Structure to design on (765 residues):
């Protein structure tokens, strides 16, 4: 039914622009990215979704995660044009069920192998965790591929080629290197994996690339590593020499308090480096994100978590006040009806806290950080997209399902 | 009527500034050219930022989009298109999701309560003994590392234990074979593991006052071995925790629920197994001409004061209940003592260093 006339653009547009690998300064002139979602609406969605997890035994998470993505995608605009998330909860649910069908035999085989290995030495089955680790990396790749094909912009979808297994192999080797160097190799790991991911990500017919280097990331972030190592060393020395003195203890506590502040700074440095490395053809990204940009959000997250936990404990304390006598006599009398009611309410309150923590996490870490990052971005040479034509097909939700199944903690 | 909107044809990334003509279908027009003609009833609302009406169409390219920001135009489109929100997920479907979730959960829980024990019972018979021994060795390793315990051995103590075990095995109502050892642990307990292994804990030996008490407990554990209860329990615990893990594993902190549920389910299973093992012990002792009652006295002696755990949570039936069952049998102590005083002393002292 699309009547003619689109043809000119369609025919002209198989131009594959080779990735630009220059490091020359890109003037921040381009189209700004903005985040325009309503915070209140998002919060309400999280609360409703969180509460619905209780009667659905957690199954509602597929619907919640879909709504969250719809909100985040639609709220993110390049100039006037918003992204769109076209995935559905049903797809992920089906992916999850297929993942179970794959994983159940693996888990059972793993269990039996574990038993056979245990025979030789207690808890010797640990190395078998590596198999599941590899599978988890594969799942992460496939999940990203799913999300890419459900992300559309200007009427075209993103998609990925490449191999999840190749990615899993790469990730395994780099994780080994990172572990062996006590984390110092992390910037190069991140760069190598990001390169693989982005070079296999396409927007319609336009292939992506990643030009950030591990060296540049290391230069910007290494001080955090050294600072943390320094703090730990200083704490060890102080405790070793004068651990009993109150002054030394306060000093140690102050030192340890500095560590959490380095995490948001590290994340901000990484986010900016990662965003600025993204290319699609000649389309690039510039970010003005400051090192300290995430700190405020982190403080809000920590304080709200503390408030929630303190509130929970106060609630339980107040609730247990009338049943103190029953609790003390519990050994003799067993469960009284009052005590049963207390336990039921306490369990519900506990579930409420778990859900509350999840809501705060999604609100601040999911939406909050993303909004700050998005607002800092400028897309350069956006007009190059006009030549891009549609390509790629949607992939199944299996990757998402697998990734979700791994979060089940069945291992 | 024509106002501005932005059209994406779904074939290229080009953004077309268009005007809209409301004819029998919506005509999306750029200059003179009609880019697309969308039937009103095929148009659907898509996710968009606040203030933007984003439309797709079911009869055309999947990803073709029309973004409308003009408020008047949005209202006009809403009037014309009756099915804008027709296939949106979650509209009124929430109850359906809740219903299906509850159904799935019920099915899993019922499976865990009724089918898993049944399956464990049947499967246990199919597991060949060499495999059970391997499983048992694995469990054995874990038991030892959990209790941090070693086994005790003295020549005289081993001989006494072997004699006692031999007598019990000889007269047991069912052929049974078992490796019995004493574990250096102060806890008053005895356990039967898969793979025909029985551990008496030193704590129990210390609290025992005569060989008949220990003989009863040992015969009880031999009953578990003969019934392959250890293997059944392993299969069942594995099965239920796997099923409930599927259900709750995703809710962080759900482990507490899993453990609680498992305790209840396994508890009710074990009560049955304990009763049968008690009967096995009573039969064995009666065949040896000894009374099964002393075992009950030992149970009462080691029972924690006050009965902390409510009966339905306990894996062992309440002592009172078991005492009655043991006492219900005719009490005749006609047979010879199972151990001489000397042997009994050696067995009690098997974990003493001196």
């Amino acid at each position: 039914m699309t009547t003619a006339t689109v043809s000119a653009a369609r025919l002209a547009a198989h131009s594959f622009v080779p990735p630009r690998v220059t490091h020359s300064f890109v003037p921040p002139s381009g189209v700004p990215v903005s985040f325009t979602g309503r915070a209140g609406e998002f919060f309400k969605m999280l609360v409703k979704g969180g509460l619905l997890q209780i009667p659905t035994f957690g199954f509602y998470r597929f619907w919640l995660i879909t709504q969250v993505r719809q909100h985040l995608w639609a709220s993110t605009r390049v100039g006037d044009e918003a992204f769109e998330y076209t995935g559905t909860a049903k797809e992920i649910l089906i992916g999850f069920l297929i993942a179970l069908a794959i994983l159940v035999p693996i888990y059972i085989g793993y269990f039996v192998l574990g038993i056979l290995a245990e025979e030789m030495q207690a808890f010797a089955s640990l190395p078998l965790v590596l198999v599941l680790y590899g599978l988890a990396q594969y799942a992460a790749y496939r999940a990203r591929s799913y999300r890419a094909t459900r992300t559309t912009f200007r009427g075209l979808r993103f998609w990925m080629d490449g191999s999840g297994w190749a990615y899993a192999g790469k990730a395994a080797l780099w994780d080994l290197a990172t572990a062996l160097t006590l984390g110092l190799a992390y910037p190069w790991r991140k760069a190598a994996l990001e390169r693989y991911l982005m070079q296999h990500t396409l927007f319609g017919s336009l292939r992506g690339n990643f030009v950030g280097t591990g060296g540049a990331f290391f230069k910007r972030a290494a001080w955090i590593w050294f600072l943390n190592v320094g703090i730990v060393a200083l704490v060890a020395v102080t405790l070793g020499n004068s651990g009993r003195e109150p002054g030394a203890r306060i000093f140690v506590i102050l030192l340890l308090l500095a560590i959490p502040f380095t995490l948001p700074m590290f994340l901000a440095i990484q986010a900016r480096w990662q965003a600025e490395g993204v290319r699609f053809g000649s389309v690039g990204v510039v970010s003005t994100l400051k090192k300290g940009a995430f700190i405020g959000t982190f403080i809000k997250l920590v304080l709200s978590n503390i408030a929630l936990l303190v509130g929970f404990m106060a609630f339980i304390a107040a609730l247990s006040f009338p049943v103190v006598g029953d609790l003390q006599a519990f050994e003799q009398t067993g469960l009284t009806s009052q005590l049963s009611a207390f336990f039921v309410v306490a369990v519900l309150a506990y579930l409420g806290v778990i859900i509350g923590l999840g809501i705060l996490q999604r609100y601040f870490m999911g939406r909050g950080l993303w909004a700050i990052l998005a607002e800092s971005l400028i897309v350069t040479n956006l007009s190059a997209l006009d030549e891009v034509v549609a390509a790629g097909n949607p992939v199944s939700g299996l990757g998402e399902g697998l990734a979700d199944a791994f979060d089940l903690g069945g291992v | 009527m024509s106002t501005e909107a932005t059209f994406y044809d779904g074939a290229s990334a080009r953004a077309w500034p268009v005007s809209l003509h409301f004819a029998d279908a919506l005509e999306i027009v750029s200059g003179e050219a009609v880019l697309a003609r969308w039937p009103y009833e095929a148009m659907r609302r898509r996710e968009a930022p606040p203030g933007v009406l984003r439309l797709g169409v079911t009869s055309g390219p999947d990803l073709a989009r029309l973004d409308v920001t003009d408020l008047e135009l949005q209202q006009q489109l809403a009037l014309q298109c009756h099915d804008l929100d027709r296939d949106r997920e979650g509209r009124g479907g929430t109850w359906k999701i809740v219903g299906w979730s509850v159904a799935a959960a019920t099915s899993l829980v019922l499976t865990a309560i009724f089918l898993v024990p049944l399956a464990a019972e049947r499967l246990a018979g199919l597991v060949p003994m060499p495999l059970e021994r391997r499983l048992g060795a694995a469990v054995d390793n874990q038991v030892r590392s959990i209790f941090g315990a070693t086994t005790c051995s003295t020549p005289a103590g081993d001989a006494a234990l072997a004699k006692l075990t031999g007598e019990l095995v000889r007269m047991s109502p069912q052929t049974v074979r078992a490796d019995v050892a004493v574990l250096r642990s102060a806890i008053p307990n005895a356990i039967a593991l898969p793979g025909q292994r029985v551990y008496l804990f030193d704590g129990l030996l210390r609290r025992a006052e005569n060989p008949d008490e220990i003989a009863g407990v040992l015969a009880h554990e031999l009953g578990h071995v003969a019934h392959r209860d250890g293997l059944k329990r392993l299969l069942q615990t594995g099965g239920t925790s796997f099923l409930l893990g599927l259900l709750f594993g995703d809710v962080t902190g759900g482990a507490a629920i899993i453990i609680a549920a498992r305790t209840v389910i396994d508890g009710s299973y074990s009560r049955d197994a304990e009763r049968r093992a008690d009967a096995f012990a009573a039969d064995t002792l009666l065949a040896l001409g000894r009374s099964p009652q002393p075992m009950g006295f030992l149970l009462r002696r080691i029972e924690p004061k006050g009965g902390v755990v409510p009966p339905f949570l306990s894996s062992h039936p309440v002592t009172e209940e078991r005492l009655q069952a043991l006492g219900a049998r005719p009490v005749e102590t006609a047979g010879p003592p199972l151990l001489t005083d000397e042997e009994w002393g050696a067995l009690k002292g098997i974990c003493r260093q001196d």
